Amino acid sequence: MSVGGPVRALMRRLLGRADERRHVAADSGQWARVREVLADALERTPIERASFLATACRGEPELLAEVRSLLAAHDGTGPLDRAPEAMRERMERRLAPGAQVGPYRVLEHHGGGGMGVVYRAHDTRLDRTVALKFLPAHLSSDERAKQRFMLEAQAAAALDHPNICTVHEIAETDDGRLYITMPFYRGETLEARLVRCALPLPLAMDIALQAARGLSQAHERGIVHRDIKPGNLVVTDDGIVKILDFGIAKTAHAQLTSARMILGTAAYMSPEQAVGDAVDHRSDLWSLGVVLYEMITGRRPFAGDSVEALVAAILTAEPAPLTGGSRLALAAGQVIRTFLQKDPVMRFASAADAVGALEDALAGRDTSPPAGASELDVAGGGVAPTGERRQIVPAVVRLSGYASLVERLAPDGGRHAAGAPAGGRRRGRRPARGRGQRAEQR
After folding, report:
1. Could you tell me the CATH superfamily of domain 92-183?
2. Of 3.40.50.2300, 3.50.50.60, 1.10.3720.10, 1.10.510.10, which CATH number belongs to 187-437?
3. How confident is the model at residue 412, as a pLDDT?
């Protein structure tokens, strides 16, 4: 086991705090195991830790409790622990209004995230307003980050669709900072809109439809976004949805992440993405289903007090069903249930299929399950029409990491977490195939 300097220092601090309260003797083999597992956990992302700890601490509840306690102490660090991060943020070289970047004059800082800092700027050549997205300064020396940033530009530039952000060019400043030039869309992100309130059902369905159309073209080109969320969807003043940020996209020809590296935003991750398995276009469809549910209800379908609890909910829980008895509400519920199938095989086969289902729902065409579908399929969410929760067991569980999640629960915990007693059975169904032949836009 190799532990880097920063991780080693963090371990010393955490283990030092724990010396006064640990439940095992300092010279015991279990304390050595705590050190070993803690070191490995600290080298993983918070989302990876849930799956890792379930495996590493299998059959050792005291070890699991001790490591989780130490990790909780790490997550609850105080002002002194946060100082390095605050210093790093202050050291970012934020461009001042009026700064010249090639032919662009910076107007204002507009925002940013983990993979980019965005400015509103004026294109002096073509007399237009644009957005400049820069790789963050602290990553400017990271060749891997630069490569991912280039991939974002190439992925987006390869797509020409009204629901996908256009890329004008990619360039580099004199001091080596990469940036992408994009249109500056007048409007707001869906995230900003949802802060105020949930959306009317027809509007939510239309936004999901536009996003599905954009994803359909991306998927046809072999591009998986992997971070569909409200913050990456802009609704312009004209009501046009634009998908932003292909910075962590995986294409059919290039993948920059290791097999177990997790990228994306936890609340919108598919089950397979949350446990670090390989993902394909169906992971984007799950994420779009989460976004649609949130637009309609004002809350996310899966929640937890920690990343670990959130991952467990994504793997095992069923979202509360939608309320309302209108034809559109029933159709929306059916579409969301297909988006949010735990098994990717049970979701829409393609974004084009999702487009067809959303178009049918908005047009008032029948979207009911085919003849022979079970009552549970129609009621949805594992809840019978009377409100009594059904006891179900998935017929097929294909999720990597599910077994390890159940392993760490109490003897009957696995069935309880899934809401399923022994002997329960659910008749699954696959979404109708054939919509993939529909024209993407009519």
Report:
1. Phosphorylase Kinase; domain 1 (3.30.200.20)
2. 1.10.510.10
3. 42
Tens-digit pLDDT profile for residues 358-376: 999 999 886 555 443 333 2
- Whether 206 sits among the annotated catalytic residues: the reply is no
Phi-psi region of 222 (alpha: psi -120 to 50; beta: other; left: phi over 0): left
The pLDDT, as a whole number, for residue 114 is 61
| pLDDT tens digits, 53-81 | 777 787 787 888 888 777 776 555 454 44
Q: Which residue, among 127, 76, 63, 132, has the nearest Cα to 99 in the 3D structure?
A: 132
Asked which of 42-51, 79-88, 124-133, 281-290 is least confident by mean pLDDT, the reply is 79-88
Global pTM reads: 0.66
Structural domain spans, the chain: 5-80, 92-183, 187-437
Catalytic residue among 142, 160, 174, 227: 227
The conformational region for residue 383 under phi > 0 = left, psi -120 to 50 = alpha, else beta, is: beta
